[in-house]
Amino acid sequence: MTARVPAAADAARATRAEVCVVACAEVWRGDGEVLAATAGTVPALGARLARLTFSPRLLLTDGEAMLLSTPVGAPEDPAPAEGWLPYRKHLSLAARGKRHMMMGASQLDRYGNQNISCIGDWARPRRQLLGARGAPSNTVNHPVSYWVPRHSPRVFVPRVDTVSGVGYDRAAEAGPAAARFHELRRVVTDLAVFDFATPDHRMRLASVHPGVSVAQVCEQTGFEPAVPDQVPVTREPTGEELRLLREVLDPHGNRDREVRT
Amino acid sequence: MDKSLSLAGFAARIESGMTVGIGGWGARRKPMALVRALLRTDVADLTVVSCGGPDVGLLAAAGRISKLVAPFVTLDSVPLEPHFRAAREAGALEFEEWDESMFLWGLTAAAHRLPFMPVRAGIGSDIPRHNPRLRTVTSPYQDGEELLAAPALTLDVTLVHLNRADVRGNGQSLGPDPFFDDLFTEAAEHTYLSCERVVDHFTGPPQSLLVQRQNVTGVLHTPRGAHFTACAPDYGRDEAFQRAYLRAAQDPDAWRRFEEHFLAGDEHAYQRAVDGFAQREATV
C-alpha cells in the first residue's frame, strides 16, 4: 500500500456519503466497455470512481453530448472529450445494450418496478413528477440500478402508482421482448444495498451500511425484502478511494448535499 | 427565394387545433421567441409534441394546450416544470406519456411516411396501459418478438430554433447536440425556423448543416430567441431568470406580475425587460 495515510485509519473516518459513493461505484464492477450513465451526484461520483479504479474501460459522459476521455477536469475544457454522444446516439447506444444506468426512483416495489412519472392516480395525479423519460426503454434494453438518497417507506412501496421502469414480475408477464435484455442489478440507498438474487427476483437485502441495523432498514422499507440470516456490512472505502473522492473527484463535498450524515 | 417572416406573420399562420412539434430539449435551445409570439395570439386547443421544457410550461400556463405528447417535461437544472405540474394536477390537459425511444421512432416514422416503427421501449411498462391507441406488432421472422408499434408523430407545424440560418430555410446547429430538430422538420407539413443570426454563407463543418430548406416554410431572425433556455455556443441558460420564472409560477399573483412585466409586450419589449432584469441581478 502506498497510500499516505494508512487505509484503516482513513476508512474509520469515511462518512455515510462516501460509503454510498463506493457502494454506487461497485454496481459497475465487472462491467466492460459500456456507458456508465447516472442521475444524481452520488452515482455520478461512483461511476467516475469506478472508472479511475476497478472498471477502467467504462465510458462516461459530461451530462450533455460529449464522452469524457478522463473523469477529471473542467467541463468547459474541450480536451477531455474522447467522443460525441448526442441525445439521439445516446438512445441508440442504450437500445444496443452497451449501457448500465443508475437511475433515481420516486417509488420502487419489491420486484424493482420504478416510478418517476407521478404520484397518485395517473389520470389525475396528486403530484406530477418528471414523466417516464427513458425508464421504459432503459429497463428492457440494458442493466439498470437505482439510487435512493433518502430510504423511506414513501419510496419503497408495496405497489408503485405507475410503472415507468419495468420490474422483474412485469418483464416476465410481458413476455420475451421485455425479458430478453432485462436486468436490474442493484439498489443503493443511504442505509443499505439491495440486489435481486432470489429465486423469483424479489428485492434482497445485500448489505447494510456501517452503523445501520437490519431492523432499521426493514422499518424504512414499505414491503418485506428478502433478508438473509447473515447480512454483511457494506464495505468501507479504501484509503486510495477516499483520496480520489476527497482530493480529485469531489473536493467541494457535493456528495454531502445529497446524503445526510 | 426569401422565406423571411416576422413574428406576427408567423403567428398568424398557426391555427387553433393544430398539432405543433417543438424542437430543442428540456430547457435547451427551445424556440422561445416563437412560443412567446403564440402567446400574443388567441390560438388555443393545440396538440403539442415536445421533449418538454418551459415551452410546454408557458403554453400550458396560458391554457393553450389541450393535449401534450411528451416523454418528460423538465427545466434541467430544476427537474420539475411548475406549470406542467399544475396543469396535470388540475386535469387541465390530456397527456400522452411516451418513452424517449418511442418518441424518437414516432418522429422517424412520420419523417419516413410510415405508420409506425417497432420499438422494445414501453413493453412491460404502464405506457401502453395509459394509452389505448398504442398497439403491439409481432415480428414476422423467426424470433416472433412482440414489440411496441410506436405510431407516427405526424405534425401540422414544427417550431425550431438554431444558431444560424439563411433566408432560403437552411439551418445550422453549432452546439454540441442537434437534439431531434431535423426529425421534427421532416415530420411536419410546415416548419418555422428561428435563428440567432441570418447569414449569406455558412462556415463550419458540413455536419452542422442540420435543417434543409425543402422542409422549411418560414425563417425568423430572433436574436436571443431561445432565452431563457440554453443556446450553445451563443449563450448558456439564464439560470437567474429561470429561478425567477420558477418563483413566479408558485403563486397566481406573482405569475400575473411576471406576465405583465415580461410577456405583455412584443419580443423587443421582452428582450428589454430581460436586460433590465439582468442589470438588477448584477447590482443586487
TrEMBL record, chain A:
InterPro entries: CoA_trans_fam_I, NagB/RpiA_transferase-like. SUPFAM superfamilies: NagB/RpiA/CoA transferase-like (SSF100950). Coiled coil: none annotated. It holds the Pfam family CoA_trans. PANTHER family: ACETATE COA-TRANSFERASE YDIF (PTHR43293), CHOLESTEROL RING-CLEAVING HYDROLASE IPDB SUBUNIT (PTHR43293:SF3). Belongs to the 3-oxoacid CoA-transferase subunit B family. This is CoA-transferase.
